[in-house]
């Protein structure tokens, strides 16, 4: 009944303020979230402009794929230890997690823009929209679901990986896992794992809701959907128009 | 006045030449149709007028002003553009799609929407469709919205790139008639691109038949071209050679009307003879409507 004990451990109010004379769940959770948040913000700051540039211009796609794949191959724990041995502070940790988060968000951004019908963009340009207006009024709204999908992937990766900083004495929910391991306290270890999992799922769920709301009306959800199926709209009542369907 | 192409040439960086040496004058307030098979450069030529494509050599003038000196975005906002498959913004309602250009040029949204409703009337769309999304409309309705959007900024010039190419023949017929009506009412300088010679003859006051590389095979009114094809290519293209347009009168046993058949023997239409004799004088419009019927008979 390790799992139930772990739940009990989490629900124990004392553990929220202090665990083994060290930071409790509340503090670790706060630090974990803060570090994750910083990493996601910087990931977006790096990946969005590049991804939107590639998607809008169609230039540099091959290069981005190569870089993203190389970055993906970097062992996170290894890089983290090298950088944190140099300086045991937050910025190098954030840097490592940004590397982790950039590939999925970058891919989401340029794939989102590339998935838009070329005719829609061509027509917008022929209407007299500036490149900036095309990006802002056409590409971003239409690509929003895929961009947010990339953001979800990046965030999930980052929240899960932030656990690793506990190896180097920086606060995160990983402290419960490592502390439990060191003390042979498997209940605490499981509790730590559950906390990270639940946090990741909650944030992902939140972003999923956001993604749903960001899907523009009039655009069918899901890529396989037929253009006739439009979301959140009543079935059109056949208006008396001069032509049939 | 109008639009003038002067020795326009378009070569792409990979060496292919889309247009070799094209000169034509498009008169104001009438419809000129560029017609030709795919690869003849007709769309490229059309897109040069709003600087979606810039010519490698030569000049294009609108009302004697060279357009290479006009900023493309500003130029495009004064020229209506209607394309195949409408190119509507899927995430905007019909009324917002129509209001796109006026909003871009600074018209307040409420006013632009109000005017957009008027344009829906103009193109024969019910106002109840105003708050629908393009994905909820039929292909023909989408094209009407596309035409309304092209007209929204009240441009003097309307460019139409095979706008009716993707709709079924019956709806196309309707849309063509609507366009003729709009043209009578509004008198825009319209440049229309199609590969359908029947559509070209129906809509164009001036028809430019293009061969590969933007070479003009013949230019003239539909009547001139039909009566006097400049070359075998033109004769073949307009269908005179195949006998599609060479109609023969066939005596009917009963009734006063005379049946016309084409060279393949398909019934193409009748000549009505109210007084028991044939009215052969107005052959221009007659040959036009007859040719349309030929198509349907041929397809059936």
From TrEMBL, chain A:
InterPro entries: ABC_transp_perm/SBD (IPR051204), MetI-like (IPR000515), MetI-like_sf (IPR035906). It is a multi-pass membrane protein. GO terms for cellular component: plasma membrane. It holds the Pfam family BPD_transp_1. Residues 29-207 form the ABC transmembrane type-1 domain. GO terms for biological process: glycine betaine transport; transmembrane transport. Gene3D superfamilies: MetI-like. The chain crosses the membrane at residues 33-55, 62-86, 92-113, 186-210. SUPFAM superfamilies: MetI-like. PROSITE patterns: ABC_TM1 (PS50928). Belongs to the binding-protein-dependent transport system permease family. This is Osmoprotectant transport system permease protein.
TrEMBL record, chain B:
Residues 3-238 form the ABC transporter domain. It is an enzyme of class 7 (translocase). GO terms for molecular function: ABC-type quaternary ammonium compound transporting activity; ATP binding; ATP hydrolysis activity. Its EC number is 7.6.2.9. It holds the Pfam family ABC_tran. Keywords: ATP-binding, Nucleotide-binding, Transport. Signal peptide: none annotated. The keyword Nucleotide-binding applies. Residues 278-300 are annotated as: Disordered. SUPFAM superfamilies: P-loop containing nucleoside triphosphate hydrolases. Residues 280-300 have a biased composition (Polar residues). Belongs to the ABC transporter superfamily. This is ABC-type quaternary amine transporter. The lineage of its organism: Bacteria, Bacillati, Actinomycetota, Actinomycetes, Micrococcales.
């Amino acid at each position: 009944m390790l799992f139930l004990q772990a739940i009990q451990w989490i629900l124990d109010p004392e553990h929220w303020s202090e665990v083994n004379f060290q930071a409790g769940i509340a503090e670790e959770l706060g630090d974990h979230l803060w570090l994750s948040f910083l990493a996601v913000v910087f990931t977006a700051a790096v990946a969005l402009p590049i991804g939107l540039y590639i998607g809008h211009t169609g230039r540099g796609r091959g290069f981005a794929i190569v870089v993203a794949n190389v970055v993906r191959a970097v062992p996170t724990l290894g890089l983290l230890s090298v950088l944190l041995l140099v300086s045991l502070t937050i910025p190098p940790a954030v840097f490592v997690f940004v590397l982790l988060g950039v590939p999925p968000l970058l891919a989401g951004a340029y794939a989102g823009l590339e998935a838009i019908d070329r005719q829609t963009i061509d027509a917008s340009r022929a209407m007299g929209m500036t490149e900036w207006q095309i990006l802002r009024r056409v590409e971003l709204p239409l690509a929003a679901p895929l961009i947010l999908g990339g953001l979800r992937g990046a965030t999930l990766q980052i929240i899960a990986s932030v656990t690793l900083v506990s190896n180097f004495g920086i606060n995160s929910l990983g402290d419960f896992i490592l502390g439990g391991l060191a003390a042979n306290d498997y209940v605490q270890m499981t509790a730590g794992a559950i906390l990270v999992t639940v946090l990741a799922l909650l944030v992902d769920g939140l972003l999923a809701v956001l993604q749903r709301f960001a899907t523009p009306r009039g655009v069918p959800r899901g890529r396989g959907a037929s253009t006739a199926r439009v979301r959140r709209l009543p079935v059109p009542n056949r208006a008396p128009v001069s032509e049939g369907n | 006045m109008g639009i003038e192409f002067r020795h326009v040439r378009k070569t792409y960086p990979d060496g292919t030449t889309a247009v070799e040496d094209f000169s034509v004058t498009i008169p104001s307030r009438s419809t000129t149709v560029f017609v030709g098979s795919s690869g003849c450069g007709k769309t490229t030529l059309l897109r040069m007028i709003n600087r979606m494509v810039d010519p490698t050599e030569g000049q294009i003038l609108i009302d004697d002003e060279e357009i290479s000196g006009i900023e493309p975005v500003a130029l495009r906002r004064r020229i209506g553009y209607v394309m195949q498959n409408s190119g509507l913004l899927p995430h905007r309602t019909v009324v917002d799609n129509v209001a796109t250009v006026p909003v871009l040029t600074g018209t307040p949204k409420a006013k632009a929407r109000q005017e957009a409703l008027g344009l829906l009337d103009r193109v024969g769309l019910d106002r109840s469709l105003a708050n629908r999304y393009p994905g909820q409309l039929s292909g023909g309705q989408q094209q009407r919205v596309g035409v309304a959007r092209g007209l929204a900024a009240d441009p003097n010039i309307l460019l139409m790139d095979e706008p009716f190419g993707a709709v079924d023949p019956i709806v196309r017929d309707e849309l063509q008639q609507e366009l003729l009506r709009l043209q009578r009412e509004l008198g825009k300088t319209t440049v229309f691109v199609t590969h359908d010679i029947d559509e070209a003859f129906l809509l164009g006051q001036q028809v430019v038949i293009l061969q590969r590389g933007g070479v003009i095979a013949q230019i003239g009114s539909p009547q001139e071209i039909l009566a006097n094809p400049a070359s075998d290519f033109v004769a073949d293209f307009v269908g005179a050679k195949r006998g599609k347009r060479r109609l023969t009168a066939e005596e009917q046993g009963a009734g006063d009307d005379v049946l016309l058949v084409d060279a393949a023997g398909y019934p193409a239409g009748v000549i009505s003879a109210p007084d028991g004799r044939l009215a052969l004088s107005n052959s221009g419009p007659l040959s036009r409507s007859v040719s349309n019927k030929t198509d349907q008979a041929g397809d059936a």
